[in-house]
Amino acid sequence: MEPSRMPLKARALLLPLLAIAFAAGLALAATPDQKAAAGFGPHPTLPEPRRQLLPTVHVAASVGWPAGAKPQAYGGHNVDAFANGLDHPRWIYVLPNGDVLVAETNAPTTRPDDGKGPKAWVTKQFMKKAGAGTPSANRIILLRDTKGDGVADQRSVFVDGLNSPFGMALVGNTFYVANTDAIVSYAYTTGQTSLQGPANHLTDLPAGTINHHWTKNLIASADGKKLYASIGSNSNAAENGIEAEEGRAAIVEIDIVSGAKRVYATGLRNPVGMAWEPGSGVLWTSVNERDELGDDLVPDYMTAVHDGGFYGWPYSYYGRHLDPRVKPQRPDLVDKALVPDYALGSHTASLGLAASDGNSLGPAYTHGMFVGQHGSWNRKNASGYKVIFVPFVNAKPQGQPLTVLEGFLNRKGEAMGRPVGVALDKRGALLVADDVGNVIWRVTLNP
Fold this sequence. Notes:
Elements lengths: L7 H19 L7 H4 L2 E2 L30 E2 L3 E7 L5 E6 L5 E5 L13 H15 L6 E6 L9 E6 L8 E4 L2 E5 L3 E6 L12 E5 L11 E5 L5 E6 L18 E6 L5 E6 L3 E8 L4 E7 L10 E6 L4 E2 L5 E2 L3 E2 L8 H4 L7 E5 L3 E6 L12 E6 L12 E8 L2 E2 L4 E5 L12 E6 L5 E5 L4 E7 L2
Parallel strand pairs: 15-19
Antiparallel strand pairs: 1-22, 2-27, 3-30, 4-5, 5-6, 6-7, 8-9, 9-10, 10-11, 12-13, 13-14, 14-15, 16-17, 17-18, 18-22, 20-21, 23-24, 24-25, 25-26, 25-27, 28-29, 29-30
């Protein structure tokens, strides 16, 4: 609805909010911030919560990459485009034969109850400015490098007609896709460039008319008997009512034969990336935490996922730190809230997660996790907008992260790109999905 066509009372509430938000947007900066650094690591420093009547809104306008421009690689690495000219590429999956699958996707259009009211209307406008307002292509693209030169010279539509697809998994000869509302499967033969035949329905996933965090990721167990799906919350901090969160803010385990599912872990506001830690065989996830408690709360994080574990949302954050906005509280749940393993910085939108074992980027990256940080839209100084590496020792994260790729913001604070999914290709190079630049970047070690 245009502001001029909104009810007078709503306009009276909206206009001051717009003025504050646009003024704030002009001040976007990407300079380092000591407070931001304190929000990283195994033991982050958490300030006192600062409730905000109006959220901080500093959006990096999406402008795309100028001709010849690309992100900056660190640590003796080089970065080049593996493929460009894509349509909002969000997630990557590498098949055993080396073919690279890319989910070209965005939020579903049928969410009439997501974010009602003036504040939510403003937020949606800024999300469009950030590049999140384009219609979903609803397809998966196959990219193939036949020359072995690190550039995809063949591409085809692997499967289309999907519903905001995200997670992908191949188990044997069956290929699974997590749509926003269900997991479906297709028969697959090695080397196939497009899937044939109708999809088979495995199980439904929470969607509905709100469907606030719409992405549903997918990962298979090592024995191929189970799938795990990550499902985000239907709100920031349960403002839509706890009944709207049924089956959400969780990771669920699904039997691959029957489709029967059970809750594996809960209290995870928006778990997105998932990866198996190779040494321990434990499932890890990257989680986007809540907003509107200040620039430096709450850190996004990655953590080992324990069967039956509760991680606090919405009642508490980072263990037993109570969120004062959530009423009524649940002290019985807060008492057993698990502390995440590693903080990834506040509002960094840490989405992509990939175990590094088997990479070809050098010995410093032998054990750990690569993390794609999509970048903040609600922090005075921009955070995220980079790909980082978190080193692991004895299957646990240690120390501060290393920057692998940055330079996604230009000097004006505009977003030329935003990293999302990360994955290792068959030769151990790091692939990065950039949904604003519409590129898949490939990071390699300099010769």
